[in-house]
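haha ok so turns out i had the wrong file open the whole time. this is the CORRECT one, sorry everyone. sequence first:
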Amino acid sequence: MSSDNSPSKTSGQYHSVKGTVVETVGNLTGSTSWQQSGKTEHAQGETEYKAAQAQGYAEGTGDRLTGYKDSIVGAVTGDKAQQTSGNVQQEKGKAQQQVNDPTA
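then structure:
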């Protein structure tokens, strides 16, 4: 977890890889405690990565919806700046969803 206690993809990847390394060392040395510790850390890292991915996807969805709303309101009221801002936010949300797509 990151310092603000929210999931982090970077931290999740780090702990996943570190856990795999610790487990491998345990396998090579025959240390069951290292094997178990490595498996646990790897699983926790994978869980954190997936949680951060889901959080990023949800934030992207929120940006897309807010951007869509602002774009529509701007178009209806003739406010080109609001419409453009909404379109930009909508594209930002779409990009964030693509980066965090759990099916990709």
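The chain has a mean pLDDT of 94.
again sry for the mixup
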